[in-house]
């Protein structure tokens, strides 16, 4: 197929041993949950040569990463390493500088037109992006709407659900996150942990296949943090969701994730199953980071 694009790189780097190219068969860092997708099945999410620059600053540097269906991946690393940017470009909140992203076996950032791959139209972006839900650190709830109204708005406006259908779905989801008695409360009447759980219910109301969590507990005190993490644990165990979580909660990453990816300077420096990653990190930069986290506790 002819590929027509002005982007920098639609293929992985040439080095088969690059840790940044994690899914090569001969790369020992290529790890995924054996229960997360059948062998040979297309990944749920694929980043191919993804680059993001802000002026002269490169935030993501020709990144290659595949996430299997139903896999739970924790993304950790120092501030400014590109973790949140990875989620933002997947959610199409920030445009790519180079490379391509695929979701559920089809291009997200590009589309096929007359046998040629071209930058995606807004219609295409919206359709493929509807498979993704995202929960932000800052909740982003509408302050003038109740928890129920926040949760039904997008399904009615975007999916075309009737108010009755959207309300039934929203009540079920608010019950799932333990807020069935808070449906008529406004954000100002809810704790930070409760607001974040409403935000999770709102994202789930769109029936996504992929859920993104961007440091969702960093603004919460330890008790409220536990409330939100318990909801995420339940989602991971009871629902068929592919999950990417940027987090500073090392204990939760170790317990919850199928794979941990350590980011530094826009690249994946090291990755692996949590037990291996935290017990015997191989890269000097990973070791340095984990020591600093341990000393800060």
From TrEMBL:
<keyword id="KW-1003">Cell membrane</keyword>
<dbReference type="GO" id="GO:0005886">
    <property type="term" value="C:plasma membrane"/>
</dbReference>
<keyword id="KW-0997">Cell inner membrane</keyword>
<comment type="similarity">
    <text>Belongs to the ABC transporter superfamily.</text>
</comment>
<dbReference type="GO" id="GO:0005524">
    <property type="term" value="F:ATP binding"/>
</dbReference>
<dbReference type="InterPro" id="IPR003439">
    <property type="entry name" value="ABC_transporter-like_ATP-bd"/>
</dbReference>
<dbReference type="InterPro" id="IPR050086">
    <property type="entry name" value="MetN_ABC_transporter-like"/>
</dbReference>
<keyword id="KW-0547">Nucleotide-binding</keyword>
<dbReference type="GO" id="GO:0016887">
    <property type="term" value="F:ATP hydrolysis activity"/>
</dbReference>
<dbReference type="InterPro" id="IPR030679">
    <property type="entry name" value="ABC_ATPase_HisP-typ"/>
</dbReference>
<dbReference type="InterPro" id="IPR014343">
    <property type="entry name" value="Ectoine_EhuA"/>
</dbReference>
<protein>
    <submittedName>
        <fullName>Ectoine/hydroxyectoine ABC transporter ATP-binding protein EhuA</fullName>
    </submittedName>
</protein>
<keyword id="KW-0029">Amino-acid transport</keyword>
<dbReference type="GO" id="GO:0015424">
    <property type="term" value="F:ABC-type amino acid transporter activity"/>
</dbReference>
<dbReference type="InterPro" id="IPR017871">
    <property type="entry name" value="ABC_transporter-like_CS"/>
</dbReference>
<dbReference type="InterPro" id="IPR027417">
    <property type="entry name" value="P-loop_NTPase"/>
</dbReference>
<keyword id="KW-0472">Membrane</keyword>
<keyword id="KW-0067">ATP-binding</keyword>
<feature type="domain" description="ABC transporter">
    <location>
        <begin position="45"/>
        <end position="290"/>
    </location>
</feature>
<feature type="region of interest" description="Disordered">
    <location>
        <begin position="1"/>
        <end position="42"/>
    </location>
</feature>
<dbReference type="InterPro" id="IPR003593">
    <property type="entry name" value="AAA+_ATPase"/>
</dbReference>
<keyword id="KW-0813">Transport</keyword>
<dbReference type="Pfam" id="PF00005">
    <property type="entry name" value="ABC_tran"/>
</dbReference>
